[in-house]
Design goal:
Helix content is 54%, strand content 3%. With 415 residues, it is mostly helical. The longest helix has 23 residues. Strand 3 and strand 4 form a beta hairpin. Helix 12 packs antiparallel against helix 13. The strands form two sheets. The chain has a three-stranded antiparallel sheet, with no helix packed on it.
Length: 415
């Protein structure tokens, strides 16, 4: 007797969605969404079809295809009403859903790889500039394309733009537009700007580094008269983080199961090896080797992981093998995120570490201070992947004597 609850297409009882299993329902939906005029899968979307069928939970993909503008856009592409290109995804308003669709198409090999956030920043800037007056828009467009964007592209040649950088740059444009509006409201303009007006603006508007950078550029371009940009007040020095506090936080993260495992591991790399969260999230599985000991390449020379961290990392790797939403596609990130082709976000990791009062920047600085007192600065830079000038600066500030050079590689804790 056939099972009472089974897929009417293949007979499977797995992941049922109504009368069909998840795989059959997804196959049917994809053939509907991605079909060309002849009824077959559009050749340009064949890689997407194959990629989505590798989903571990086909039901999630079916739900995703129902969302706007995902299904509508893919149907238009398959019907040749819209080109299968990045320009098609540039047309809708920017949104997390459009960004996810773009990353999915990149991950499947349907679209070429691009810096998604940099592309989004260019689209955001174009829309923002178009909303301004002709005079203000022209100045900001010139600044964005010939100064800001040029520098961003130089920095992103080896590393994609981060969400925090995207946020900073988009906010920068808004602050510059606000400054130009302030000039208009006070009967001023860039050509008529004087030192008194500059001082008055900066006295009443705080955190205006973006405006200062813009004015320095405007001076170089002879768009305004030479004025002196008020400097920022030096930040108050933070109290140092003691070694005891750092190791107490290490013990907490090793044992705290309430923190997601990936974030715990990143927090431990911050605490023990003075890493930045932004560098940790970009680690790949190929950076880890596991034999008699587990080693991780943070710099040019791999480091042996202490046993408690190695145990957690082995567990993390085991979980990853069953947790990846798609069997194939995308970089082999050590800490993959929910978005296709992308690692976990820095913001989500930082949020998980906040309850332990682990502030990565502050911890990193303190940890480097501790390490350069027992290891030569060059070795610290080589093994931890930090800039040699940074390590030397820390060594000079702490009057380090190098003391026990072999400890970094010989110590069972990897300190």
């Amino acid at each position: 007797m056939p099972p009472r609850f089974a897929c009417i297409t293949c007979g499977s009882e797995e992941q049922l969605t109504g009368s069909q299993c998840g795989t059959c329902r997804l196959t049917e939906r994809l053939r509907d969404v991605l079909a060309d005029e002849g009824g077959g899968i559009h050749p340009g979307l064949a890689t997407l079809y194959d990629h989505l069928l590798t989903a571990r939970d086909p039901r999630a993909v079916v739900r995703w295809l129902r969302k706007e503008p995902v299904g509508v856009t893919l149907r238009a592409m398959s019907a040749d009403e819209l080109p299968i290109s990045h320009s098609t995804l540039d047309a809708p308003p920017l949104s997390p859903r459009v960004r996810y669709l773009r990353r999915m198409l990149i991950s499947a090999g349907t679209l070429p790889t691009i810096d998604v956030l940099l592309n989004d920043l260019e689209n955001h800037a174009a829309a923002f500039i178009a909303s301004l007056s002709t005079e203000h828009g022209a100045v900001i467009a010139q600044y964005f394309h010939w100064e800001l964007l040029r520098k961003i592209r130089q920095r992103s040649a080896n590393r994609a733009m981060t969400p925090s950088s995207y946020s900073i740059r988009s906010t920068e444009l808004r602050k510059i537009a606000h400054f130009l509006a302030w000039l208009d409201a006070n009967g001023l303009s860039l050509p008529s700007l004087d030192q008194t007006s500059v001082d008055r603006f900066f006295a009443r508007h705080h955190s205006q580094v973006a405006v200062g950078t813009f004015l320095n550029w405007a001076i170089r371009q002879s768009l305004t008269s030479p004025v002196k940009i008020p400097g920022r007040k030096p930040a108050r020095p933070r109290p140092p983080v003691s070694d005891d506090v750092i190791w107490d936080k290490v013990d907490q993260l090793v044992d705290d199961e309430s923190v997601p495992l990936g974030s715990r591991l990143i927090g431990l790399l911050v605490l023990v090896f003075a890493q930045r969260i932004s560098d940790c999230v970009r680690l790949c599985r190929s950076d880890v080797t596991d034999g008699e000991t587990m080693r991780i390449a943070l710099g040019r020379t791999p480091l042996t992981l202490p046993s408690p961290i190695a145990v957690l990392l082995r567990r993390h790797l085991k979980e990853l093998s069953t947790r990846r939403p798609y069997v194939a596609g995308g970089p082999d990130w050590l800490f993959p995120g929910a978005t296709p082709h992308h690692h976990v976000s820095e913001a989500s990791v930082a949020l998980h570490l906040v309850p332990h009062k682990i502030h990565a920047r502050k911890i990193q600085q303190a940890r480097i201070d501790h390490l350069v007192q027992t290891v030569p600065a060059s070795i610290v830079a080589d093994t931890l992947g930090i800039n040699i000038h940074t390590a030397v600066r820390h060594a000079a500030r702490t009057n380090s004597r190098w003391g026990n050079y072999p400890e970094l590689r010989a110590s069972p804790t990897g300190e």
